[in-house]
TrEMBL record:
Basic and acidic residues composition bias: residue spans: 29-39
Protein name per Swiss-Prot or TrEMBL: DegT/DnrJ/EryC1/StrS family aminotransferase
Protein source organism: Amycolatopsis acidicola
Upper taxonomic lineage: Bacteria, Bacillati, Actinomycetota, Actinomycetes, Pseudonocardiales
One Gene Ontology term from the biological process aspect of the record: antibiotic biosynthetic process
Chain positions covered by the region annotation Disordered: 24-101
């Protein structure tokens, strides 16, 4: 009997490929699928070359993997040659075919051969019951839903704000905040050069112009000293991104905003529960925007966002953007009259129920993640050339990500930061420890801003409402470039997925100690590789 296209060997194919095989089978012909599903194929190629999942995203990624493999082979051959002459820095010889180095990168035994478990979100029976109870209630529409309203009330209470709106993504929350702030065609908004794309595109969504400022090279958040000279007479707002879970320098940002009459929008997509002097993210600016997609510290079962503010006028303008430009009464009454341009950013009652259940455990997750991060920080601080995250006085970090900088000069090595970062990343990955980059270029270096096609014909940059020509030159953002070139995130997902597990922290510690105990070997390898900076090497962003 011919196999059915639903059999495992046909799964993962594009619909048109499944149809093709179905027609072959119906004609009595058989043919194996001519390819693996692309994501699976790319991850297989990455694994063959000792790279993390997702590292081979395109043809350029495959070429990068081949270069990495060639560099390692060349360095390994050099080690074997040195070993034959009695000068290798490798492990003691063993019977058979001994490894030439203790590092897994060059044939040694990895610290964590099975890798690190990074499952997230953690779904409990309570979460499942919250979802099923909502389904059984039949209260599934915005007209009779109570879960969304309760989530809004609870998140406003948690952040210490007067108002919260639940929307269907973090990007929607940012866009609604930009619209509520009164941003219009040609108005400028200051945005950090290091962030996720939505921190800037939310401005374009309302015909505004993003103007980028550099980041602090230690905290990775907006550098207030660079904000000041980016302000023009058309500047209306500042978006302060609490990158990786650490709040920006809100005192300095707010002082600049007050002097220039600007609205401050917090992009707190990664900072649920972070604080400045005891005040939680979301209550530090005029408006706050959170993502609660399933990969965030506070997760929903899919996509979602939360907007916070203490200003009733801002809340109402954002609410109009959320629902077709209409004015919605507190009791839910609507007049089906659009007062402004609006979208459909409504949130699901089922997802709200899941998020409310997760919110009950958020503080526990924060405490457990922070304990793991503090422990790892203590260990890494003792290693030469390793600079773990810095938390300034008065701020708390919730560690959505744990970014580590590398300083080969501090370690006494005559190697450039970029090649050193790359070989450290390869060495840790080979030990079974997931490490990744975060963004491979400053936001102004992305094609969207380089070409400025926008909505078409160059709008909003060329639609006649701008006061000046805003140029995007990524080389201006030297701190952002240095951070991208010289640092990595520990873990391939958010920190709560692994940092709450003491065994995972032990594996991270052991791998770093092992790798940084072989600095001479790493430096020698770094001098041989064919290196290009991340922003020069293909189009991948992760």
């Amino acid at each position: 009997m011919p196999e059915d296209p639903g059999e495992p060997r046909f799964r993962g194919l594009h619909a048109r490929d499944r149809l093709f095989h179905r027609r072959l089978l119906s004609a009595g012909l058989e043919r194996k699928p001519h390819h693996e599903p692309p994501p699976r194929r790319r991850n297989r190629v990455a694994a063959q070359h000792g790279l993390p999942p997702g590292a081979v995203a395109d043809r350029a990624g495959a070429e990068r993997a081949r270069r990495v493999q060639r560099d390692r082979r060349r360095h390994r051959d050099g080690l074997r040659g040195a070993d034959r002459q009695g000068g290798a820095q490798g492990a003691p010889a063993a019977a058979g075919n001994p490894p030439v180095s203790a590092l897994a990168l060059f044939g040694g035994t990895p610290v964590a051969p099975k890798g690190i478990d990074e499952n997230w979100p953690e779904v409990t029976e309570t979460d499942i019951a919250a979802v099923t109870d909502t389904l059984r209630s039949g209260r599934l529409s915005w007209m009779n839903d109570d879960q969304v309203r309760e989530l809004e009330r609870e998140w406003a209470g948690y952040t210490g704000t007067a108002h919260c709106l639940a929307v269907n993504s973090g990007t929607a929350a940012l866009h609604a905040a930009v619209a509520a702030a009164g941003i219009g065609p040609g108005d400028e908004v200051i945005v950090p050069a290091l962030s996720f794309l939505a921190s800037a595109t939310c401005v374009l969504h309302h015909q505004g112009i993003p103007v980028f400022a550099d980041v602090d090279p230690v905290t990775f958040t907006l550098d207030p000293s660079d904000v000041e000279h980016r302000i023009s007479r058309r500047t209306k707002a500042i978006i302060a991104v609490h990158l990786h879970g650490l709040p920006a320098d809100m005192a300095a940002v707010s002082e600049i905003a007050r002097r220039h009459g600007l609205v401050v929008i917090e992009d707190a997509a990664q900072a649920h529960g972070a604080t400045v002097d005891g005040v939680r993210a979301g209550a530090l600016g005029d408006l706050g925007a959170f993502s609660i997609m399933a990969g965030k510290n506070l997760a929903t079962a899919g996509e979602g966002g939360l907007l916070t503010t203490n200003d009733t006028g801002l809340r109402n303008r954002a609410d109009a953007v959320k629902m077709f430009g209409e004015t919605i009464d507190p009791d839910g009454h609507r007049d089906y009259h659009a007062h402004t341009l609006g979208w459909n950013y409504r949130f699901s009652s089922i997802l709200a129920a899941f998020t409310r259940s997760q919110l009950a455990r958020l503080d526990t997750y924060i405490d457990e993640t922070r304990a793991g991060a503090n422990r790892l920080t203590g260990t890494l601080s003792e290693l030469p050339g390793v600079l773990p995250p810095v938390v300034p006085d008065g701020r708390t970090h919730v560690y959505h990500h744990f970014r580590v900088r590398f300083d080969p000069a501090q370690a006494g090595l005559d190697v450039a930061p970029g090649p050193f970062r790359r070989v450290v990343g390869e060495a840790l990955t080979a030990e079974g420890i997931p490490v990744i980059g975060y963004q491979n270029r400053p936001l102004p270096g992305q094609r969207l801003f380089a070409e400025r096609v926008g909505y078409g014909r160059g709008c909003p940059w060329t639609c006649g409402h701008t006061a000046r020509t805003v140029e995007y030159r990524p080389e201006e953002y030297t701190s952002t470039l240095a951070v991208i070139s010289g640092s990595l995130l520990v873990g391939s997902r958010l920190c709560p997925a692994s940092f709450r597990d003491p065994a995972a922290i032990s594996a991270y510690e052991d791998a770093f100690v092992k790798v940084f105990g072989r600095l001479g070997e790493l430096a020698a390898y770094a001098r041989t590789i064919d290196y290009a900076e991340p922003w020069e090497d293909g189009d991948r962003l992760w």
